[in-house]
């Protein structure tokens, strides 16, 4: 290649490069620090101004500004390492490169680096429109490359732009095949500092107001896809954490070690489901009660919760099975019993004494529990997001004084009362309910579905779930909450009445659900495509797990197949000869077969002469065709359809 | 080391290249390799795939695979841009040594697809690009440095393209069967050459007719255009040459003996200059060289004959 013959001063190249850079940087402007975004925009505008005036900046000025920028990035991030600092720095350098671009080499470098910059945006967002943006971005870079490598430069999208579009369309099927076959690794190649912002979600501590605060978040916590049976939504308790230690104000998670092997409990599988969890920057994952086997990549703990090995910084997909566990015949170990009865000294004494006293009036633990729930139902306990603040002895204040609160108030107070009465109990944090999406046939659990409930240990029966919040009388549920609690159907109504599902009403909600279904397909099936999914469809093809080589074969076959198909498609065009030449070559071949030593390099008159000298018989047959060819070639006129037809027939007769 | 390897490689290439006027570019004679930017793209591709694996970013994988597919496809597109083209070498005119000879190469596109950015040159790094429309021809001109008199073989010509994306470069080599005749470099002789005027006797006899028309005869190749009787031609009597008497006395034979005492190349250059001077002043001249003699004559063809003899001496 002779790059001097392809200068970037050719028509339209620099404006095109500016446009491509702007397009490629566009999504990053929303994520990188504002001053870097602004500076890149200024640099692009400066380049355009200089292009109009045919000026180039002196190198030493550029060098100083570049050094200042590197310093600025360092001050911003306190490092030049790491993802965010790296992307900030590379976008600045990218814009600077164009500013000083003078040759083919610079332009080619910018265009190929554009591919990388395009990809950096995907570290911030994998939303569905980013897929569209990927195609537009690649197309524009290809247009840039075509213009750069064509002697005429850029002359609008219509002519040379077509080749980029066609190439991209042909590239998509190859991309899909490679996407399916390319071996994925289960874990990252190296660990990275997590520098994305903290996601919202349930924490491993609970104090008054902590879950209520989540209620305002409409963000999706996770989506659930049931295989087969679906439980009624009032039964959808998504268990996340067990909070057992109480210090008088906050409930804490106990430290456990994971269960090795399988739980040795009699249990029957109930529901099978798949969860697609949004990143929450935490380790815990949620499952439908009861939890037994840990999904891949997570541990099971003895309090029937799961923890993932790594924080969930990317969307995490797992399949799980819910069980009915029969705890009867089990007993709590001394250690477990101690934990389930632990109460802080010297606080909330009023409730503690009251509970012990009330327990005496009832014959059994179960009767006492039922009485407490009806106590909540019949007394002026209200369900509100904005309870009055209690300074000390939060449980005493709630239970006897304010009598209003959110689920954490009820769950906390209930466990406190149980423990005071000598009944082992604990708080469970997670989500309750789900919104059905009929278009995607899955359920959406939002942060606003965050919930806390309790478990009590009944001798002979084991752990039993009690949700004290559900005992509140419906008339005392805050208006706002009643509406938004629609996803927990049957809540605050009578338990057990499965209301079934009503299709969502209203056009807007309809569209929103459809859109979410498309997005879910995108994020679950496309963006969530992983090693497990890869193996799962390979298994369906009869290929056993861990036969990695089949992926390799698939990959190789893809490339070879694509080579054949596109080689044929692309090269077919090059062989299409102009018809007169095509027939003339056919004629020459025929003559060669008849032992006339002619070839392409001879003029048609020489061929005619040669034929006459070699064989009179051949000459009489071939002369008309040759003469027609000479006529077509030397009269330099438009070849009419008739003439072409005549020539073709004459050639055929030879 | 690299230089000698290159030399060996190209002499091997030259041996394989047939000398032919027209070469049809096809599978057999088109070569293709990534350009340096192709390698750069491969590096970026690997970077994207590693980053995507690490961050488990399927979008990154998609971008990487699109890039890979584009790279794969560009092999065909670049190859197609050359395939089916016909390269025709034209004969080159003669030049004097150290002047640049021009080599004309015609690109003939008999196919129905347009070809963009076809580079023609002596090396891949010195090609100049032309577009060739569908079913048409483009002419590319290469200038060649000449050093020595005599027949110069035309070097191997490369025909290359990096269109559309600059990721791959496809090229083909062709060799022209035509040689370029390089005349000796003319150098004026520091002292006047001794010439022998052979036509003295006859000259004296016909001296009087200096400007007079002496005779009309049929035009013969080599007659100066000035002597053609255009009036007769206009009356459709054919091309007639006027014979004048006045070149008597200006006939001269340029002889090798007159410069034999100089160094050979220098001597040839002096004679060349003398031949050119004689032709310029419209003299009738002959050339007497050690091995051959060229009879009296005048005109471009005669000049070429003399210069050729000198070039090949």
UniProtKB/TrEMBL annotation, chain A:
<feature type="transmembrane region" description="Helical">
    <location>
        <begin position="12"/>
        <end position="29"/>
    </location>
</feature>
<feature type="transmembrane region" description="Helical">
    <location>
        <begin position="550"/>
        <end position="571"/>
    </location>
</feature>
<feature type="transmembrane region" description="Helical">
    <location>
        <begin position="107"/>
        <end position="124"/>
    </location>
</feature>
<dbReference type="InterPro" id="IPR021878">
    <property type="entry name" value="TgpA_N"/>
</dbReference>
<dbReference type="Pfam" id="PF11992">
    <property type="entry name" value="TgpA_N"/>
</dbReference>
<feature type="transmembrane region" description="Helical">
    <location>
        <begin position="60"/>
        <end position="77"/>
    </location>
</feature>
<keyword id="KW-0812">Transmembrane</keyword>
<feature type="transmembrane region" description="Helical">
    <location>
        <begin position="160"/>
        <end position="182"/>
    </location>
</feature>
<dbReference type="InterPro" id="IPR052901">
    <property type="entry name" value="Bact_TGase-like"/>
</dbReference>
<feature type="transmembrane region" description="Helical">
    <location>
        <begin position="130"/>
        <end position="148"/>
    </location>
</feature>
<dbReference type="InterPro" id="IPR038765">
    <property type="entry name" value="Papain-like_cys_pep_sf"/>
</dbReference>
<keyword id="KW-1133">Transmembrane helix</keyword>
<protein>
    <submittedName>
        <fullName>DUF3488 domain-containing protein</fullName>
    </submittedName>
</protein>
<keyword id="KW-0472">Membrane</keyword>
<dbReference type="Pfam" id="PF01841">
    <property type="entry name" value="Transglut_core"/>
</dbReference>
<feature type="domain" description="Transglutaminase-like">
    <location>
        <begin position="399"/>
        <end position="470"/>
    </location>
</feature>
<dbReference type="InterPro" id="IPR002931">
    <property type="entry name" value="Transglutaminase-like"/>
</dbReference>
TrEMBL record, chain B:
<keyword id="KW-0472">Membrane</keyword>
<protein>
    <submittedName>
        <fullName>Uncharacterized protein</fullName>
    </submittedName>
</protein>
<feature type="transmembrane region" description="Helical">
    <location>
        <begin position="37"/>
        <end position="55"/>
    </location>
</feature>
<keyword id="KW-0812">Transmembrane</keyword>
<keyword id="KW-1133">Transmembrane helix</keyword>
<feature type="transmembrane region" description="Helical">
    <location>
        <begin position="61"/>
        <end position="79"/>
    </location>
</feature>
């Amino acid at each position: 290649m002779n790059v001097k013959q392809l200068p970037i001063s050719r028509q339209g190249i620099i404006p095109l490069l500016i446009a491509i850079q702007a397009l490629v940087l566009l999504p990053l402007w929303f994520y990188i620090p504002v001053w870097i975004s602004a500076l890149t925009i200024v640099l692009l505008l400066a380049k355009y101004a200089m292009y109009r005036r045919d000026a180039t900046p002196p190198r030493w000025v550029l060098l100083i500004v570049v050094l200042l920028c590197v310093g600025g990035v360092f001050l911003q991030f306190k490092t030049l390492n790491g993802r965010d600092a790296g992307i900030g720095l590379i976008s600045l350098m990218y814009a600077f490169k164009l500013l000083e671009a003078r040759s083919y080499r610079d332009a080619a470098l910018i265009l190929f680096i554009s591919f990388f910059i395009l990809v950096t945006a995907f570290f911030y967002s994998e939303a569905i429109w980013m897929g569209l943006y990927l195609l537009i971005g690649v197309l524009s870079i290809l247009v840039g490359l075509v213009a750069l490598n064509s002697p005429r430069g850029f002359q609008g999208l219509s002519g040379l732009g077509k080749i980029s579009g066609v190439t991209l369309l042909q590239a998509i099927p190859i991309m899909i095949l490679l996407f399916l076959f390319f071996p994925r690794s289960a874990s990252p190649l190296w660990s990275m500092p997590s520098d994305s912002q903290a996601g919202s979600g349930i924490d491993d501590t609970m104090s008054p107001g902590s879950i209520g605060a989540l209620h305002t978040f409409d963000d999706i916590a996770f989506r659930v896809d049931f295989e087969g049976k679906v439980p009624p939504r009032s039964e959808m308790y998504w268990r996340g954490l067990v909070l057992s230690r109480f210090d008088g104000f906050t409930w804490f998670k106990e430290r456990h070690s994971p269960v090795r092997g399988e739980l040795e409990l009699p249990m029957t599988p109930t529901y099978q489901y798949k969860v697609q969890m949004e990143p929450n920057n935490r380790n815990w994952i949620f499952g439908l009660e009861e939890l037994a086997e840990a999904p891949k990549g997570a541990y099971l703990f003895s309090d029937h919760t799961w923890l993932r090995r790594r924080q969930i910084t990317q969307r995490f997909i797992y399949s799980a099975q819910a069980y009915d566990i029969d705890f009867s015949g089990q007993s709590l170990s001394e250690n477990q019993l101690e934990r389930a009865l632990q109460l802080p000294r010297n606080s909330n004494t009023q409730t503690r004494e009251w509970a012990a006293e009330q327990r005496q009036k009832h014959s059994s633990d179960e009767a006492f529990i039922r009485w407490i729930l009806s106590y909540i139902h019949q007394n002026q306990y209200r369900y509100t997001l904005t309870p009055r603040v209690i300074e000390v002895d939060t449980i005493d204040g709630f239970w006897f004084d304010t009598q209003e609160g959110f689920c954490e108030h009820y769950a906390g107070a209930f466990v406190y009362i149980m423990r005071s009465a000598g009944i082992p109990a604990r708080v469970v944090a997670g989500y309750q309910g789900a919104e059905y999406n009929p278009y995607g046939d899955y359920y959406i659990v939002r942060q606003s579905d965050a919930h806390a409930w309790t478990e009590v240990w009944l001798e002979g029966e084991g752990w039993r779930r009690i949700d004290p919040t559900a005992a509140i009388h419906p008339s005392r549920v805050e208006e706002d909450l009643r509406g938004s609690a629609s996803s927990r159907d049957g809540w605050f109504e009578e338990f057990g009445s499965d209301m079934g599902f009503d299709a969502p009403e209203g056009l807007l909600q309809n569209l929103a659900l459809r859109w979410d279904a498309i997005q879910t397909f995108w994020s679950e099936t496309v963006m969530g495509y992983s090693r497990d999914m890869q193996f799962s469809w390979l298994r369906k093809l009869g290929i056993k797990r861990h036969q990695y080589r089949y992926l390799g074969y698939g990959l190789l076959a893809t490339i070879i197949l694509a080579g054949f198909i596109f080689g044929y498609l692309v090269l077919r065009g090059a062989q299409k000869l102009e018809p007169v030449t095509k027939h003339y070559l056919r004629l020459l071949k025929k003559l060669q077969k008849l032992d006339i030593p002619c070839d392409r390099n001879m003029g048609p008159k020489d061929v005619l002469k040669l034929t006459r000298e070699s064989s009179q018989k051949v000459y009489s047959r071939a002369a008309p065709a040759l003469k027609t060819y000479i006529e077509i070639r030397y009269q330099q006129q438009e070849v009419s359809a008739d003439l072409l037809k005549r020539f073709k027939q004459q050639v055929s007769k030879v | 080391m690299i230089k000698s390897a290159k030399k060996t490689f190209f002499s091997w290439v030259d041996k394989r290249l047939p000398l032919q006027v027209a070469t049809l570019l096809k599978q057999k004679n088109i070569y293709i390799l990534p350009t340096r930017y192709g390698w750069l793209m491969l590096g970026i591709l690997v970077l994207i795939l590693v980053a995507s694996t690490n961050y488990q970013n399927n979008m990154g994988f998609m971008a990487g695979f699109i890039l890979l597919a584009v790279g794969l496809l560009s092999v065909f597109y670049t190859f197609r841009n050359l395939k089916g083209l016909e390269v025709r070498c034209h004969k080159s005119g003669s030049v004097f040594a150290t002047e640049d000879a021009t080599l004309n190469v015609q690109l003939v596109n008999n196919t129905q697809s347009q070809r963009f950015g076809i580079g023609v040159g002596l090396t891949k790094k010195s090609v100049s690009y032309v577009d060739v429309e569908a079913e048409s021809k483009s002419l590319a001109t290469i200038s060649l440095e000449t050093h020595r008199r005599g027949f110069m073989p035309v070097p191997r010509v490369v025909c290359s393209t990096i269109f559309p994306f600059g990721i791959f470069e496809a090229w083909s080599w062709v060799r022209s069967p035509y040689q370029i005749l390089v005349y000796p470099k003319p150098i004026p002789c520091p002292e006047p050459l001794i010439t022998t005027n052979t036509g003295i006797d006859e000259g004296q006899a016909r001296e009087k007719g200096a400007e007079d028309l002496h005779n009309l005869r049929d035009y013969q190749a080599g007659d100066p255009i000035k002597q053609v009787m255009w009036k007769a031609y206009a009356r459709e009597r054919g091309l007639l040459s006027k014979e004048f008497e006045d070149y008597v006395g200006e006939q001269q034979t340029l002889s090798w003996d007159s410069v034999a005492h100089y160094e050979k190349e220098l001597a040839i250059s002096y004679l060349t200059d003398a031949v050119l001077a004689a032709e310029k002043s419209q003299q009738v001249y002959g050339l007497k060289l050690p091995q051959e003699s060229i009879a009296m004559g005048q005109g471009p063809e005669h000049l070429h004959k003399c210069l050729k003899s000198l070039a090949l001496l």
